[in-house]
């Protein structure tokens, strides 16, 4: 029987049968084909479903990991931001302070908070210098009710979120890549923070509703190779001596552009070698103190012609008063929805001390306060961006901000040394670690 079937299939006896058998075979082929096509189709469906669920899982992981691992976002975070931004005095202001865990940022944030203004900090806690000092400043701010968001001014989404959460009246923009000589080692970091970061911040400010007034840190270094003293805001600033100076000068041009197009109220403050407690470890007065205490040598640079270098060292409390006065006198921005309604205020001020001191004199003061002698090496100023001297004319800041520095280098360094010894755990007998 089996043989018969096989024969019939292989050698059909009638043409009709052949036709029928052929039809059956074709059907079977077709059926197989359909069967395999539908299997394929099912597989394809399964694959698509798997891919889709994988992708949505990925996006779920991305989104949720942002909430679980990112340092910003979420309801609790928003509550902290709003609490920190809450204004506690009549006519108080709500200020976003960038670089809040930095030296000047910490002091300005504290001053604003103490008088009842709302303050939210932003800082990326980068490792340009010991981040543990920045964390300690953050803790100090937290103990005064100032919340510092960990994030970068280049993060446009974060900035948009901050402005969505709080209608800041002012931005105090102090986040920057500081330091004159480090630009030789890491030029890109200056462009990243001082140019790209500034533009990202200004973009956020111009789009914010209401637009905040912006006060930001420029630098005495924009005077560059100028030799007319004291440096006045009316002097030319087109001969920067370092990339740091060039990015600060670029900042002055960039802010002008946002003022002109979008009606942002802008105040640029040219800081002159600011020093004091909670200062920056990369600066000379700070690193000299550390080395003197540790019995290590310091290098004192000297001009090519043998002259001593000099700086218009400015004490932090004086600079803070200048910053706060700049915020208080800043007019409102005039734009909205990314468009200017009328011309907006654009100002630039020197915040210096008006009495330059040479670097060897600075060392002498430190030696007296530390009651220790420095092991000094003298070397010619390397050609890496330093300028021989700085000296501020502060008439404009005095007239328009009521800025009046009151702390000389002797007094200011005394306060700095006191803080340094206490912060780094030296006992009262200077030089001994407790
Ligand atoms: O006003 C500014 O806009 C800038 O001020 C500050 O720059 P500077 O005035 O260069 O301060 P700082 O490094 O303390 O050097 C002081 C002096 O010590 C000399 N110096 C320095 C180091 C050293 O080892 N030896 C030395 O002699 C050195 O040659 C100089 O003569 C800020 O850092 C900068 O971010 C910016 O804000």
TrEMBL record:
Record membrane topology: Multi-pass membrane protein
Enzyme Commission code(s) on record: 5.1.3.6
Reactions it catalyzes: UDP-alpha-D-glucuronate = UDP-alpha-D-galacturonate
Record-annotated NAD-dependent epimerase/dehydratase domain positions: 95-333
GO CC terms of this entry: Golgi cisterna membrane
Subcellular location: Golgi apparatus, Golgi stack membrane
Keyword Transferase: no
GO biological process terms, semicolon-separated: galacturonate biosynthetic process
Main location: Golgi
Keywords: Isomerase, Membrane, NAD, Transmembrane, Transmembrane helix
Family affiliation: Belongs to the NAD(P)-dependent epimerase/dehydratase family.
Name the record gives this protein: UDP-glucuronate 4-epimerase
